[in-house]
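Box S1 | Example of a co-folding query
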Amino acid sequence: MKKIIRVWDLPIRLFHWLLVLCIIGSIVSVNLGGNAMEWHAYFGYSILTLLIFRIVWGFIGSTHARFTSFAPNPKSILNYLQGKAPRVLGHNPLGAMSVFALLLVLSIQVVTGLFSDDEIAFQGPLAKFVSNSTVSSFSVVHEWNHLLIYALITIHIAAIIYYKKFKGEDLITPMISGDKEINPSEEASYLPSDLGRASKDGALQRGLALVLLSLIGVVVGYLITSS
Ligand code: HEM
Ligand code: HEM
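Box S1 (continued) | Returned holo structure for protoporphyrin IX containing FE
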């Protein structure tokens, strides 16, 4: 019989798909320009809120959401590349590196956006607090860092297609349903301890996540509107 194990809690799944929507929104709006720059900022503030939530959830969230459960080290990466590592329910060491890289470049993008100026009609809400040369520097980083984001997203999606096509591993369904289905024939490729580690995803975790996200949203909203 198949083992069905909850890996991605609802907060992680919502974080992921809301992040995807907001990034699409921020890219579409910046390309429209003009009045749509307001929307670029709103999508950016939403991404800022989501990122802060994800970072906090990485410390207090369920098993597979925690950074400590998937933080890679040189040995785990080497073992994984040499095919010596057991399969894992959560992020594998390479996937984990891409998660950390994505969170980092996205954080750089939102923070620099707050201090950027398009030199037409729109500036980030914190630009007025720093010198013109600082605004220029942040705007340059904001302009170039987006290419890094595009590159990492392309690698992210290519890796997911690669796992499906060449390794027969469907990573997308669990990011939607939350569950991984393990066939009896696959069980031996996992560590038994890993198969016993489901993520808690009950009303308590979801309630806590909702309170946390709302709180972060209010603080970000307050800081943006009061500056
Ligand atoms: C704007 C584009 C995207 C960004 C910025 C992004 C970002 C991320 C991040 C940060 C994670 C880590 C989740 C966590 O632990 O918090 C992740 C995981 C994941 N993403 Fe995306 N993602 C994007 C698009 C997509 C798309 C289009 C798909 C589906 C085709 C997808 C499928 C997945 C899957 C399956 C995982 C889990 C990977 C694993 O099992 O290790 N992502 N993504
Ligand atoms: C992850 C979130 C974000 C993404 C992906 C993103 C992406 C971009 C891109 C692609 C550009 C055009 C760069 C160019 O070629 O000139 C841009 C410009 C800009 N963005 Fe963002 N941005 C994000 C967040 C923010 C935030 C939070 C703000 C703050 C309100 C912001 C404010 C600006 C401004 C003022 C510009 C014009 C800067 C210039 O022309 O040099 N962005 N952004």
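The chain has one domain: 3-145+174-226. DSSP finds nine helices and two strands in the chain.
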